[in-house]
Amino acid sequence: MRHRKLMPISEGIADLLLKIASAENVLEQKLAETLLRLNLMNRKTKLYQISCTAALVQGVLHGGIASSHILENGDFGLGTFENLDGEMAILDGQIYQMCADGTVKQRSDRFDVPFAQVCRFGSFETYSLARVRDFSDLAREASACRASNNHFYAFLIEAYFDTMHVRAVKPSQPGTSLASAAENETIFTWNGISGCLIGFWSPDFSSSFSVPGYHFHFLSADRTKGGHVLDCSFEHAKLRVQFLSELSVSFPTSGPFLEADLSADTREALRKAE
């Protein structure tokens, strides 16, 4: 069962528009255009991305973009660290590193990032989800909260999870393919744990630069556990979903990315690794 709650335009913006209309003698049509433009700005619809998944698949694990770019462009998202040293979650403007030894570190230092996706999360729709038995159930329920298969969406799902099954990749040598790196991972399973799923839906056409379909990382409520979600179950959850209509990508300007062959079809490799 899903209950939808729309986020209205703020009263402050509405008041501002009325003042503009009065002061500038704006015509009704012009006012409507201004309202639409400001509303789109208020919805924060841009997804910012560092590098592309094709590079990870080919073993470009070098951090080519400074971590400062992440929080300059968003407060919510996921990614990985140089040489795949754990899984990344960004929540409420904080970066967390979920390591293969089971620890979670909050990162406020400067470091370089090989891949990340982030947005400003705040203009969302809210749904209540009932029983989810596995990841397939979760994907089906989440899909009912999307309007299109051709846009990106950000998802935050908060719940008390009956089961949570995640993985964290161990650091790999530069040049190690994503498929090989995924074989060197640690699996964690927890029963009865509160936390949230942080993730994105990416369209099928994005397979050369994103993870098509659903990609979630888990972070426990006490910020001590987490990883890349493999499976989960819960009885009730609150789902928030934000529509993303813009994509901005920063590519590395030096290092192995410049010489890598990124022309291969990465869909199958991503499916196996994810």
How would you explain this protein's 3D organization?
The chain has helices at residues 11-24, 28-43, 53-57, 68-73, 135-143, 178-182, 267-273; strands at residues 46-50, 65-66, 76-80, 87-91, 94-98, 104-107, 112-113, 115-119, 125-129, 152-169, 185-202, 213-220, 226-244, 246-250. The protein is an alpha+beta fold. It folds into 2 domains: 11-43; 46-273, 60s Ribosomal Protein L30, Chain: A, CATH 3.30.1330. The longest helix is centred in the N-terminal third of the chain and has 16 residues, at 28-43. The chain is globular, with a radius of gyration of 20 Å. 37% of the residues are buried.
Beta-strand portion reads: 35-45%
At the first level of CATH, the class of the largest domain is: Alpha Beta
How far the N terminus sits from the C terminus, by CA atoms, comes to 28 Å
Q: What count of domains describes the coordinates?
A: 2
Note the run of SSEs as H and E.
HHEHEHEEEEEEEHEHEEEEH
What is the 3D shape? globular
State the CATH architecture of the largest domain. 2-Layer Sandwich
Q: CATH superfamily membership of the largest domain, which one?
A: Hypothetical protein, similar to alpha- acetolactate decarboxylase, domain 2
CATH fold category name of the largest domain: 60s Ribosomal Protein L30, Chain: A
Strand order in the sheet with the most strands: 6-5-4-3-8-1-14
Helix share bin:
10-25%
Largest sheet: 7 strands, mixed
Query: What is the rounded Rg?
Result: 20 Å
Low-pLDDT ranges: 3-11
How many helices? 7
> Pairing-aware structural class of the strands and helices?
alpha+beta
* Mean of residue pLDDT values: 87
User: How many beta strands in the DSSP annotation?
Assistant: 14
